[in-house]
């Protein structure tokens, strides 16, 4: 009996230690970069604790995450306010890409998009000239897409009685757009993009673009982020500029599919297992928006022979809840 009691106490203690050592990840506007057999996650940090900027976590399985042992500091910061970087507040929506041995980080700060670079994935990311990409007007939620001809296109959100997605040709060397090519992607046209649960001006944001079989797929979020119906859909085009045709069965990620409110604004990536995934954020709880929680869901890609396009859906019953593990 005494031995049984000791075993029970030890088991409960182990469970308690395990629970204390693991906690959910509270990153919003998330992205995952895959390299060297590992996943690297960054996003908008929840709360006001710690330095402003972006931290990076790593994982081998998408489930458990930690600050890299090779990180520049204990928080895993890869870009920090004031360290040769643009912005004083509102550090949102980072995206990482690599070109010719250099890593680039696009992000939002002070409601402007900016571009920083580093020789290492782990940073620090800095700017040679501290400035936004296009200071002519406010623009947020940047996404850089490299086409198969190596041309870059810059997708972002601009404000004009609402949030609308725009695209422009981009010069990676100068970090600037070709303003003559700037074009709005589309209008608010589908019912899911504006539900009555939270009234707002039109909002379409959080773009990700991929190319498959010479077709361009633009994934985006719609509704205000505080709306429980914040969700993700996609559109297809024959050109990076469009015209874009929205999927009739949008949204593909929504609370009715993944079971949690405010499911939106993330990024599409291919896993080490060659499976497609979408990483996104959700509301903190049924009655509270923030700090928002991070989620990952497997994506199903199916070829529609008749339409000549891929159709996308997600495995809503296989959502991954990533957790932080202290090393």
UniProtKB/TrEMBL annotation:
Coiled coil: none annotated. GO terms for biological process: xylan catabolic process. One of its GO terms (molecular function) is hydrolase activity, hydrolyzing O-glycosyl compounds. Belongs to the glycosyl hydrolase 43 family. The record marks 141 as: Important for catalytic activity, responsible for pKa modulation of the active site Glu and correct orientation of both the proton donor and substrate. Residues 1-19 form the signal peptide. InterPro entries: Glyco_hydro_43, Glyco_hydro_beta-prop_sf, Glycosyl_Hydrlase_43_Enz. Keywords: Carbohydrate metabolism, Glycosidase, Hydrolase, Polysaccharide degradation, Signal, Xylan degradation. The keyword Hydrolase applies. The active site is at residues 29, 205. This is Beta-xylosidase.
